[in-house]
Amino acid sequence: YEAVLPDLPLDARINYRVRNGQQIVRESSFATAASPPASVRVAMVGDLATGKDGQKAVAYRIAQEKPQALVALGDIVYPTGRINQYMHFFWGTYNETDEPGPKTGAPLMASVPFYPVLGNHDVGAKLPAYPDALGAYYFFRVPRNGPGAGPWTTPLGPDTTAAGRFRTLAGDSHPHIDAYSFDTGPVHFLVLPSNGSGNPDQPALRRWAERDLMSSAARWKIVCHHHPGFSSSSQHYTEQATRLWQPLFEACGVDAVFSGHVHNYQRTVPLTFKPSTGKRDKRGRVDGVFKLDRDFDGVANTRPSGVVHVIAGGGGATLYGPGLDKTAPLLRMLHGDNYADFTARMVADRHSFVILDASPDELRLRAIDAEGETIDSIRITKAAR
Fold first, then answer.
1. Bridge partner residues of 49 (DSSP)
2. Contact criterion met (CB below 8 Å) for 311 and 231
3. Which in 53, 149, 152, 162 has the greatest CB count within 10 A?
């Protein structure tokens, strides 16, 4: 069931009640989008629901931070994004939780708008072999302001009967979830596809992304896609297609890029990157020239020269180790100049998420583990307009 609430005011809190006959199914409240001068808090977390205990502690800690919105950075449900996996692995942690706690989760979806980013596991099951495939399209609604259908859209397969049934049941969320943008407070968020159907070398998708970013007057611009281009983990290291977006992000004034896919927490120094050829090699790597801002520390020096890339993939899936002290020398040995020492902070031994606090004056990032401890923190500022 879906209810549309049009023309909601900014900076408001909406109380609601859902009834089934005379029975109250749910009552709660949620914050509407914030106006540009207002401050806003957004949770960023990927690789969420596997049915294991780690996800419940993360959900509970996110709830303790009281975010006004949550961006799910892909691989929302494992292993293949089917409806039955949402029922078994997701709702019990993020919605059907009467007593919130680190062992039970928290009913975040009752009060916090979720903005999905599609990961590879979210589109892992295919039609018509799995009639309940592509569950994300049933359970999330996003702004209809994307580029529409194209080669970047999640394919529904050649079976027109199965595809037609899916569209009837899921509504017009396909293809809108694949790419869209939204604003809250002083932040503009752009969501891009990075699965096989969303390569950054597709001209129409690039033109749309450039128009979207350049037309935004927001103080902060943040891009979200599932696959990171700059990672210091061995797992998925060569999946570097999203590096090809970097020159566009730099030209359009993007402040930070958030990804999941790699199951830990990582933050780069501010960086610029110029691809050598604009293409991936046979292994999926993208070579190029790095420029790293090592003077930025997010404490004394808070004005970065370059884009900060953050991996927030510690939402509940099996963690990817080891830590930076072991992975960095290995990656340098295996990949030469394709790897650079761009990682400022990496925490691979615990589940975690990120809280963004944005005001017109500054952007604050805090990475928080499942015990509620802050494992990384920086401030970003920029010159006054």
1. 77
2. yes
3. 152
